[in-house]
Design brief:
This protein is mainly alpha-helical. It is 74% helix and 0% strand.
Length: 179
């Protein structure tokens, strides 16, 4: 459902309310809705047994908060993501990526190895996480080394990866970094 929503060929009427909340968050991230997700929605999803949807909601909302440089909101989503890391490897990877965004937005460099994180995401077949890691690496490279050409190459690569996987939200994020 998540991949279908990112491709834009997903209908919320086909699923229950938990996944509908996620769908609405994805629409917001893609600029198709003005209603941003709220952390209480993720808590509701967990209480209803929709933990996977909560993990994806946190990831989507965190990406949006990061792109808007909203540290307070990003910290809320990061805390929620961290509380779900016990659920799966996917949840742990998404929470690690969100933590990298918190560090970057605070003006520091991520302590974790983004390359190792990318390798884990590839092993889990999480294309959107891989693309976001490459995008994050572009920002980190620019911030740490000022290497514009290296950062541009990573951002271009992330954009191409998102295009080839039909991951619109990731493509918007990578395009934002490329710009």
């Amino acid at each position: 459902a998540h991949d279908a929503a990112l491709r834009g060929d997903f209908s919320p009427k086909d699923v229950d309310s938990g996944w509908e909340i996620l769908f609405r968050a994805l629409c917001h991230g893609a600029g198709l809705s003005n209603a941003p997700p709220h952390p209480d929605q993720a808590r509701f999803l967990v209480s209803q047994g929709h933990v996977e949807a909560a993990v994806l909601l946190c990831a989507c909302a965190a990406r949006s908060a990061f792109a808007r440089f909203d540290l307070d909101e990003l910290l809320q989503w990061s805390r929620l993501s961290d509380s779900l890391t016990h659920v799966s490897t996917e949840a742990m990877l998404r929470a690690s990526l969100t933590s990298s965004w918190v560090v970057l937005i605070q003006g520091h460099l991520p302590e974790q190895d983004l390359q190792a994180l990318s390798k884990q995401a590839r092993a889990e077949k999480l294309a959107d996480v891989v693309v976001d890691i490459v995008t994050t690496r572009a920002l980190s490279t620019l911030q740490s080394q000022g290497e514009l050409s290296v950062a541009l190459e990573d951002a271009r690569r992330a954009t191409r990866m998102a295009q080839s996987e039909s991951l619109r939200e990731c493509q918007y994020f990578a395009g934002w970094v490329l710009a």
